[in-house]
Amino acid sequence: MASVPHCPASDLLRSSSNYANGVPLHSLGKSRIVPARRGSAVVFARIRKGKKHDYPRPDEIDPNAKGGHLGYLSQFKPLKEKPKMVTLPFEKPLLDLEKKMMEVRKMADQTGLDFSDQIITMETKYQQAQKYLYTHLTPIQRVNIARHPNRPTFLDHVLSITDKFVELHGDRGGYDDPAIVTGIGSIAGRTYMFIGQQKGRNTKENIQRNFGMPTPHGYRKALRMMNYADHHGFPIITFIDTPGAYADLKSEELGQGEAIAHNLRTMFGLKVPIITFVIGEGGSGGALAIGCANKIFMLENAVFYVASPEACAAILWKSAKASPKAAEKLKITATELSKLKIADGVIPEPLGGAHADPSWTSQRIKTAVVEAMNELLAMDTTKLLQHRMLKFRSIGGFLEGEPLDPSKKSNMKKREKPVKQEEELVNDYDLEEELERLKQQIFSSKDESLPQPLDMGVNVMLEKLKKEVDEEFTEAVRSMGLKDKVEALRMEVSRVSVPDQPIDPSLKDKIEELKEDLNQGLSESPNYSTLKYKLDMMKELYKVKKISIQNGKCASPMDRCEKLDQESSPEELEVDTQEELHRSLV
Hints:
10 strands; alpha/beta; 49% helix
């Protein structure tokens, strides 16, 4: 390798065409620069060639190709291989029916027999089963559809609904996050700024797109495009499809929370209309960072949540296996969020989900865009900002008059009980002491009959204890979420009940059903131990009362107890107690 003689650094940086005064720059990659020796130190330097850009140069592109000279800017290209078919667990019955139809068709081809009637019957059965399945989806099943690997992505929808689309890159801070895609596109001659979270269509793309989880650079890129659209007056359309913001150490160091908060603050001040579409799953603040819009639309099988069902189940029930229950309680589906006024509309999907017919779904989105934008563009700037602010100020809803879930009730702060009057209180210690005193008075008595004040003392104590039991039982019913049901049943009984007439059979069934609910959930109520203790005391008082009644029929106190135990079994005493409990309710 030839060595280059020493020359000043300024000469090396001169124009490469000036061979007399400098060294051609292209020769630096092939030569070693050997400066003059100073003592024994020798310094060698090599300049490596930069890697050639992966994209083709504009002059190498066919001008007639779709996208023209700007087509090379986008990494989103048609897949070379058809996506693999993915069957969700709840779709297996449909898959079995489909396999049977294929077997019948194959048999008809091989044997030459006519199986058209059987095939038509099976196809009808398949369509009915498919329709029933997708119209009765549970929340966790909709979550699985929203996460389907073949579900259309943001760019699939944008390239389908726009006449022209140019992708814009970079956050002007040193990075272009591929998890968020931005660009300018036109629909029916009107220009929009599109911002969306992009998932991959296969494993390779998912790794490149970071599974649709943006870093702070992605949110800052979205913020730059929002300000750009606000400056030029372009309406903004955002698409949400992310499990959440990327929560690694580097993202936290770069200010993930600050980037999301900055987006939230800025979006409420933008003077152009904003529409948001939730096309897959919208996870927490990572979705909300581009979701502060005038109108929010959700696809039929999309979900929008503050925490995934798996995370919620792990927190509340210590196991991710409880995710179906968590998905139901979180109210994360499009229908539920529309009732709570979080979503402004639900866009229908074909049977089988959006991946069954992506183009049909995209056209529904396009229709919603045109209709919503016609409404929002008719507003002036002040009204538009007020509209966006009021949407989020009035967001959410309250369901009143419905029974409260006992588990939810147990986690809430307990209502403070009103202070009882001193004479109404029944002290547990005094009650036990009085009960023992009455027992001893009965057993030690040698007369054939007990004095009258004894019966009066038992009756007074029973009346006080009944009030205590009624209050404890009412509190237990309230904590079980059955108070409204009991009140409604009580009113129904009072309307239809006729003296000296049997109860209506349907009403009797309701009463029995309510009793079953009470018996099943009573042990889970917070005050069950107190209620049980007072019930036991009532049993003892009933026993004392029966002893006093049968006092003259026994020869001795021991005989009285034995006879009482034979005649009054614990089951009978339990029945008496239950009758007292249900007396005030049904």
